[in-house]
Fold these 2 entries.
Entry 1:
Amino acid sequence: MNRRAVFVGLSILVLLYASPWPAHSQPGPKVGDPGPLPPSPPPQVGSTTQTVTINVPINSDVSLVHVGSNDSFAITAEGRQAATLLLNALEEPDEVKAHEDAVKASSIYDQIIPRENYGGEYSALQWFADYIAADPAKRPSFLRDPQVAFFFHVYGSDNFAVLKEYLFRKYRLREIGDEETKAGQDRKVWLEDTILFENPRRESWERSSELLKRLDVKPGEKIADVGSGPGYFSFRFAKLAGSAGRVYAIEMNADHLRYIEQAKKAMAVNNVFTVETDGKSVGLAGIQTKVDAIFLCSLYHNMYAMSTKPERDSFIASIKESLTDNGRLFLVDNGLVPPGVLPYHGPYVAKELIIGQMLNYGFELVKEDQYIPQRYLLVFKVKKAQVAQDPKNPGAESATPKPTEKISPPKKRKSAHARHHRT
């Protein structure tokens, strides 16, 4: 049976400015007799809305939005087998046996990455297996990137103590004793988040360098990396912005910010500044500065799918307040992929849904780029105030007042920075 694509039209009401008149209601049809639709009321001076219709392609039974669970990737039999072999390689004193176990682990990852965990932790764990299996003379080539070298220092120091701890906790390969406590769960989350963010092979699936080219960050610019995690993009922005620029790594997790501070010192980076936030806003209010760009990577799907309207209103308002007059909002997220295309195994949201919502919030889409099958880039700017004309006096123009948003205090719940595959 042939698949047929269905397009769902989303009518988005874009608020332009506050109306001084009450809205007109349309009378409903009589029961059993739909009759002709009544004519729309004539446009008024100060009319508040225009309708934007966005077509969302539906060509499968897959949902348009998927957030997933807190446990990033489920444990499978083969995933556990590969992790066990990697742990054996880390603990095996016999170099020949350690090499054999590392090679076996890497071979299993080759098989399961495409179908189980593309874009997740498997490629990072495979990187460690390949490092152990490599000729000792070639191992330094694994650590040429200073950011990768620091990540290796954290997970590989003291005979790979932190990497072993992660394998113990994630795959229950050994009991630690605090697994059911909040401290133990928080530790597991931090270890996994850091591996997902700082994965030395992240470039292989995300094409991070291609994304950075499309952002076109200029020397001297100020960039806010919101939901920075341990700073994967923050340090890359620091290179692009140069010594005259500033990068604000904004994060709720204090452990991630400590990692960034330690990495800054190790790599002698002076233009990255850490900002701890509660997640209710971008987090720059206390800095009292405006930025040229705000960057959210694999994060806005949480805001779209999990936040209440007051929470989202407050967060979006803080974005507008934090951008310069010509500032850009970079939203990078994961979308649906056609059948047969290798997907990113994580949360996603159809980009048309985000575009429609941001139009409704008073942004304009200035760039759209699907630079790999599962990840897209949307660039927005705040829409400039428009000029209204009085139809009775076409020559007279009056500046359209900006919309007044009612911002309700957000409830205490998971914020936009909640952890759901933020890589």
Entry 2:
Amino acid sequence: MRVFGIAGDQYEWLDWSPVTFVFWGPGEPNNANGEEQCVQMNRHRGNWNDVNCARTNAGYLCKKYPGADHTPPPPTQPWMGYCPDGWKLFRNKCFRFKGHKHENANWSSARNWCKSENAELAVIDNQFENDFVSSYLLELHWPAWIGLTDSLVEGGFGWSDGVSPVLYTNWADKEPNNNEGLEHCTAMIHNHLVSGRWNDDMCSKEQSWVCSMKKSSSIPPPPTKNPCKSGYISWYKNCYKLVEEPKTWDAAQTACKQEGGNLASIDVSYEQAFVAGAMLEGKTDAWIGLRRTDSSLFKWIDGWPVFFTHWGPGEPSNHQTEGCVSMHGDRFFHGTWNDTDCMSGKAYICKITTESPPATPPPGDGKCLPGWAPYGRYCYFIYNEAQGFSWPESRHYCQLAKGDLVSIHSRAEMEFLIKLNTKKIHNVWIGLTRDNNFGWSWSDLNSLAFLNWAANEPNEAFHPGDVGRENCVEMYPDGLWNDNNCVQKRGFACRHRQYYTTDDSGGIVIPTDAPAISSAGLVAGAVIGAIVVSAIIIALLYYAFSIKGVKLSVPSFPKRMGRTIDVPTFNNPNFAGESET
């Protein structure tokens, strides 16, 4: 037995028998929280209670007439219909995105708004729906409420429509955690690097929200608004097409070029989600527009800088014959990238856009503190004295100086660091480390598009379930890289953005009486203890930045798709790096 229709209170038997008997428990049915649409029998008393249909901790009773043959249900037919104006169609569902600049609501108010539209807070049934929804969070200003809640039973998450089973979840790391026992509603978190992970949050928070409903055959087809040519799908200012006929990377690029586009470049996590979910949909591996231009640097074929990467486990593997990049279509590696043989035959994704790559940025005009060397828009410091430090210790010192271990994005930047590393007592830690996907990522969260491994490196065999011993990366004096044990004592290289300071008249001001992190200070600190070093560095930095009247700022970041890409350590590194000299 269940409610017949989401909005109604009339119960019906699933076999359409008339309801001639009921045996509700005291106070039932109560449709608690508006999400109890199915009926459960108490195993001791036999009376009935309405519950959320997604509840999994219950048995079930079947009934059939003696001698009756079971007839399998007919195959599910495609769901016909369309969406109301302002809603976005994906497969058999319509989605509405709310919560722009001056529009937010707590979970209950957001749900009520959806119900006023004959919908519910979004129900997400699989990875592809999650990708589609997260791709349109781009213009929302807050995390977005969806319909998952455990407000009835702690830890027993169910969809607020009371009907849909929980077939899929996409929790962020260490979620759901019910922080302080107050988090019972679910929101999708999103930013330029990661979009679509779920977090349990306080239901009283005012955030963005997403509604969903089934598409309806009663809604007429919308007027044709697709700005793209036939066969392409629109997303913001871009048009995409998946071609399943296998081609080599070069042949695929030629085919895309003939249609006025290129193999797809991917700029942010939202675009990654759209291409992986709405375009690829798990069908097959497909070429995208990223290719290694020499032995070390990956570049987009359409000239866009590499703002974002989404490498799969152990990728890029940097094998000599693997110079082109494809996107995985299978479920396990869904949407992740793999460098592979350019001559392999694969499906491919074309992209046509009205946007042009940003102009190459001029060299930075900021300032660096004493002891730091300027290059491009950054300041660099290399420590390489007799006393070495582990990778975590090295990163800690860089962070105390308001920076991070260096990330390297071009051959030119690499050559600069080789020249800056004058003492060459140790190899030098850089910011590359193994990530949770068993691949490599920069500690400052910048994209990984430049590689400079030494021969036969990285050589630490590492597979899911292993405890790897060489999870951090050091740079040899000649600039080549090696994976090594993170506790080894080495020198290190730091990087931070240049300082842009103004006095009351708008002139450039840089502190001149504040020494920065120094080799001498670190050596002394190693003798008397890391705590004292930390205190000294913090004090020096305090004096460096507490000069009266000084205001610190950084240059504005380039914009794409009508929205600023807000990256704390953002750079524009992959114009081959030559413009930074």
